[in-house]
């Protein structure tokens, strides 16, 4: 069966644990694998990207593969060609397809119509590529404790990043708490626990996670979002309310002074820049897994 990563639910706890272990091995020896030698991977970017494009493009190259970057204005999809036809053509030329887009249905259709792995580089509802790097960063920051013994608190908008943390964090056995204001809650079906109180969410947490308040497409409601989410800023006081030695995480890009203070973002209590680097290593492990014989 062809393997895909559309939401993260495709991974068992054993597969996720092995993938994270492999990611740490690849970080220690970045050029040790040639798993993609002679293989090409299509990367479709319908949304802007810095970290996702950089980490996947460099990671595929380090694995010996060739990344084929495709933008909407360079594809016949933008002129009405069907997703089915696109999937059939790509399946004849490349070995996997990564997509960064809005509608989750696009990934599902590519996976259903093609014959090669499809992986999610961000959609409106899910960001499993990010969550893999987040869990890897937790493993790295707390090497003497399993993920099942850690608590992760997410504070802010219940968005795609929060959902993927709950989904993949739950598979790993971690305790994931999400604090959001009214109107910004994450549905309970994603897993984890819910509260409107950020201090309650971070109580006992080993990591406190934040994301931007105004994402792509939210510009029209920017002022209302900033007002509602202001109490969910990650600062030293919120970290003090977490477990001793708690770290701050953020998927970036960040807006210092909004969802996180500059003191935390650039200070000693965060692993945010390790987290950004770990995108590459976790995704390399993912590509090995998806394309394994």
Automatic annotation (TrEMBL):
Residues 3-140 form the Aspartate/ornithine carbamoyltransferase carbamoyl-P binding domain. GO terms for molecular function: amino acid binding; ornithine carbamoyltransferase activity. InterPro entries: Asp/Orn_carbamoyltranf_P-bd, Asp/Orn_carbamoylTrfase, Asp/Orn_carbamoylTrfase_sf, Asp_carbamoyltransf_Asp/Orn-bd, Orn/put_carbamltrans. The keyword Metal-binding does not apply. SUPFAM superfamilies: Aspartate/ornithine carbamoyltransferase. Residues 150-289 form the Aspartate/ornithine carbamoyltransferase Asp/Orn-binding domain. One of its GO terms (biological process) is citrulline biosynthetic process. Pfam families: OTCace, OTCace_N. Keywords: Transferase. This is Unannotated protein. It comes from freshwater metagenome.
């Amino acid at each position: 069966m062809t393997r895909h990563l559309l939401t993260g639910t495709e991974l068992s706890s054993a597969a996720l644990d092995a993938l994270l272990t492999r990611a740490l091995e690849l970080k220690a020896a970045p050029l040790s694998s040639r798993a993609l030698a002679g293989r090409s991977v299509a990367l479709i970017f319908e949304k802007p990207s810095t970290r996702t494009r950089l980490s996947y493009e460099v990671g595929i190259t380090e694995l010996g593969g060739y990344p084929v970057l495709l933008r909407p204005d360079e594809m016949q999809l933008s002129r009405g060609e069907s997703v089915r036809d696109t999937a059939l053509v790509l399946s004849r030329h490349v070995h996997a397809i990564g997509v960064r887009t809005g509608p989750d249905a696009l990934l599902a259709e590519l996976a259903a119509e093609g014959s090669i792995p499809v992986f999610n580089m961000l959609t409106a509802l899910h960001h499993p590529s990010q969550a893999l790097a987040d869990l890897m960063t937790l493993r790295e920051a707390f090497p003497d404790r399993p993920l099942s013994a850690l608590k992760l608190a997410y504070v802010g908008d219940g968005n795609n990043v929060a959902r993927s943390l709950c989904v993949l964090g739950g598979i790993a056995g971690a305790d994931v708490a999400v604090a959001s204001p009214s109107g910004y809650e994450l549905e309970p079906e994603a897993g984890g626990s819910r509260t409107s109180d950020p201090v309650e969410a971070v109580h006992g947490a080993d990591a406190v996670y934040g994301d931007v308040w105004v994402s792509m497409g939210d510009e029209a409601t920017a002022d209302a979002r900033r007002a509602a989410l202001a109490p969910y800023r990650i600062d030293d006081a919120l970290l003090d309310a977490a477990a001793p030695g708690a770290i701050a995480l953020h998927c970036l890009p960040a807006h210092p002074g909004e969802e996180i203070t500059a003191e935390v973002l650039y200070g000693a209590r965060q692993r945010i820049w390790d987290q950004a680097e770990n995108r590459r290593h976790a995704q390399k492990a993912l590509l090995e897994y998806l394309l394994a014989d």
